[in-house]
Write a structure and sequence with these properties.
Largest sheet: 6 strands, mixed
Structural class: alpha+beta
Strand content: 25-35%
Shape: elongated
Number of strands: 20
Helix content: 25-40%
Number of domains: 2
Order of helices and strands: EEEHEEHEHHHEHEHEEHHEEEHEEEEEEE
Radius of gyration: 25 Å
Strand order of the largest sheet: 6-7-8-3-9-10
Distance between the termini: 34 Å
Number of helices: 10
Bound molecules: adenosine-5'-triphosphate, magnesium ion
CATH topology of the largest domain: Rossmann fold
């Protein structure tokens, strides 16, 4: 059992400079929680406060119902894995992994059994006699994770544990971490700014900005129902496109307009524009690259509802595996579309694109809130 609860947790390193502000989160037993956000937003600070490596300036931290603000790190029974894995370079892999149990005076035979068990899970049995300084980055990473799971702590706290690995190894370790979580059935709190890691590993993602939680939700909820423009733009790669549009009323219709191009609105979008008094003002339209089409009649989903054509000028083409990412200019705005490999558009081409009305999001220009949040 390990429930971790943060209540109005704040961190003030220097007077008047809040690195973490009123952080509220209930982490359930066995959750895989991810903290994401831009550099400096307070991810590591929050993790370090949970670990006890950093004082909490204000608020309460509970582990399994017990207030632990003043409990030493050793007393919290949590295991940390850092970006720069803390291995003892001259010890062998076996000695590194055995270390935390040895200082707890666990019998040798027991330690041996456990080292082999864990080494098997992480596929590092063949490395047990090697000195850790002679390992590759990926091997060191596995040993660090192995050392952390030797004892069965209440939770694992991991701060960008894969950031030193190359892309292929990262992908491989990501899969191993997911398997490990299933196997260990332990709470994991994991910091990253790699959103693929966040989207694939997390049962819940906490998106942070400037020390504050913007939204904490399951990956698909963040993706489909972001609370504001920041979350919408941060989650998803390539990022969501944003275009500022005028909201106009023409006879009984409410339309989004830009330089003569119009989208007539209906249903909830229309209702929201009216109830939020947007008519006569501007809104930011958001559309993901996969919801832009380059041809009419080729929509794969049945509930696609395309706008009229916008004429764009293609400025770049990137082949990414099975698909193509196109960047184009439309009335001074750069748009990005994700299309099939067969698409032949090249730099300099003037082509028609279409937006799927059913996937358009609208954001308030000032507050940046998602006007259609929670539907
Ligand atoms: N020991 C410290 N003393 C003063 N300020 C600090 C200290 N540690 C961190 N900060 C500041 O607190 C803020 C949050 O830092 P933190 O390390 O938590 O960010 P992060 O989200 O982990 O960023 P990154 O993705 O770059 O690791 C930053 O503005 C940082 O400069
Ligand atoms: Mg950090």
């Amino acid at each position: 059992m390990s429930e971790i609860v943060l209540r109005n947790v704040c961190k003030e390193y220097n007077k008047g400079n809040m690195a973490v502000k009123n952080f509220n989160l209930d982490i359930q037993d066995k959750e895989f929680i991810i903290f994401v956000g831009p550099s400096g937003c307070g991810k590591s600070t929050t993790l370090r406060m949970i670990a006890g490596l950093e004082d909490i300036s204000n608020g309460e931290l509970y582990i399994d119902g017990e207030l632990v603000n003043y409990v030493e790190p050793q007393g919290r029974d949590l295991a940390m894995v850092f970006q720069n894995y803390a291995l003892y370079p001259h010890m062998t892999v076996y000695e590194n992994m055995a270390f935390s149990l040895k200082i707890r005076k666990i019998p040798k035979s027991e330690i041996k059994k456990r080292v082999h068990e864990v080494a098997k899970i992480l596929e590092i049995e063949q490395l047990l006699d090697r000195r850790s300084k002679d390992l590759s980055g990926g091997q060191k990473q596995r040993v660090a994770i192995g050392s952390a799971i030797m004892r069965q702590p209440k939770a694992f706290l991991m701060d960008e544990p894969l950031s030193n690995l190359d892309a292929k190894l990262r992908a491989q370790m990501r899969i191993e971490l997911a398997k490990l979580h299933e196997r260990l059935e332990t709470t994991i709190i994991y910091v990253t700014h790699d959103q693929t890691e966040a989207m694939t590993l997390g049962s819940r993602i906490v998106v942070m900005l400037d020390g504050e939680i913007q939204q904490a939700a399951a990956p698909e909820i963040l993706y489909n129902n972001p609370i504001n423009k920041f979350v919408a733009g941060f989650i998803g790669s390539p990022a969501m496109n944003f275009v500022r549009m005028n909201v106009i009323s023409d006879t009984s219709e409410i339309m989004l307009e830009k330089e003569g191009f119009r989208i007539s609105t209906k249903n909830r979008m229309k209702e929201v524009l009216i109830s939020d008094n947007c008519v006569g003002h501007e809104v930011d339209l958001g559309i993901r690259p996969e919801n832009i089409y380059t041809e009419v009649g080729k929509e794969s989903a049945i509930d696609v509802d395309l706008t009229d054509a916008i004429e764009v000028e293609v400025v770049a083409r990137e082949l990414v595996g099975a698909e193509v990412i196109l960047y184009a200019n439309w009335c001074g705005v750069q748009l990005c579309a994700r299309v099939e490999q067969e698409n032949t558009s090249r730099e300099g081409d003037r082509v028609n694109w279409y937006l799927d009305c059913n996937c358009i999001k609208l954001f308030d220009v000032k507050s940046e809130q998602n006007l259609m949040y929670g539907e």
